[in-house]
Amino acid sequence: MTIGSFYPPQRTLMGPGPSDIYPQVLQALSRPTIGHLDPKFIGMMDELKQLLQYAFQTKNTFTIAVSAPGSAGMEACFVNLVEPGDKVIVCRNGVFGDRMRENVERCGGKAVMVDNAWGEPVDPQLVEQALQANPDAKIVAFVHAETSTGALSDAKVLSELARRYDCLTIVDAVTSLGGVPLLVDEWQLDAVYSGSQKCLSCVPGLSPLTFSQRAVDKIQNRKTPVQSWFLDQSLVLGYWSGEGKRSYHHTAPVNSLYALHEALVLLQNEGLEKAWQRHRDAHLELREGLEKLGIEFVVDEACRLPQLNAVYIPDGVDDALIRQTLLERYNLEIGAGLGTLAGKAWRIGLMGYAARSENVALCLKALETTLK
Ligand SMILES: *Cc1c(COP(=O)(O)O)cnc(C)c1O
Fold first, then answer.
1. Binding pocket residue ranges, ligand 1, CB within 6 Å
2. How far is CA 347 from CA 17, 60, 244, 359, in A?
3. Considering the entire predicted model, what is its pTM?
């Protein structure tokens, strides 16, 4: 048997990520590969840094894309900022907060958990209690947009609290970047990571990352070396900046970085405020249609993510069968529930390129016909 080329079906991706990719981004991917130390490539990386600074709304000089998916951005924050023995307040209101705990523990840190129910935002009062009870805590870690439930937490308030107790913040902005306001400098966030494949509508496999000066200082004053060679950001920095004398650290994913550059150019041309508004508009359209179908949201209106709509599966409906039918008949992917919401909820993503009326209409029509 000979195996031929692989041609994927043309799906519409409306799950928790990857999201539909902009056609211009797919085109950028197929441009000629050049050397990752080629002066032209370095020029592109300098632009990429500026575009990322715009997306994150920061002037942080340490603003890069980790050559690996969002999970690696998460790990990069923890392995660089947490030293053995460090106490970290970890907020958990879904799947990703629990992964933060794992990261802290694997770094030899002590995780102090602040728990909120799935579907609720992080409660600042509980965080403050934890900070009062643990005056030796060094970091507060939380997920801005919890993709497992569709809840948005108040990053500004949590950051103010952390600073009041002299803690750094580690913020998961994988699903928030490009979809809802995220103001890294104004909110004084310290270590913020994201992902390429959610609201940026780029290919999976890259993780935008930014560190404040306070975070960089903590890394530079570490007593122990970072246990991960690949994710040690003091080594990576020589490649991403190193003014004219960039040194080899690892081979950059050249074409994927073209794709990210293109996705960020599209975001810059649209403008952040317009992109946020587009996500809100698409969410309101979807909400109206779902309410007509009698489908209810998991998360309260006030802290609902426009780009990730977690909704309860109507009673008596076969979860797997419906999702399979959507995929086979409409080439439409929506997300299953995760963790405590498995089998109980669907997660409908309106991320990046998918946050459009056409997508909302397709999804509503497909759901309506299939549920009948
Ligand atoms: C998707 C996601 C991640 C992980 O990103 P990957 O690219 O899948 O590694 C982390 N945090 C949140 C909130 C996410 O939605």
1. 17, 69-71, 74, 96, 143, 147, 172, 174-175, 195, 197, 204
2. 10, 33, 46, 14
3. 0.97
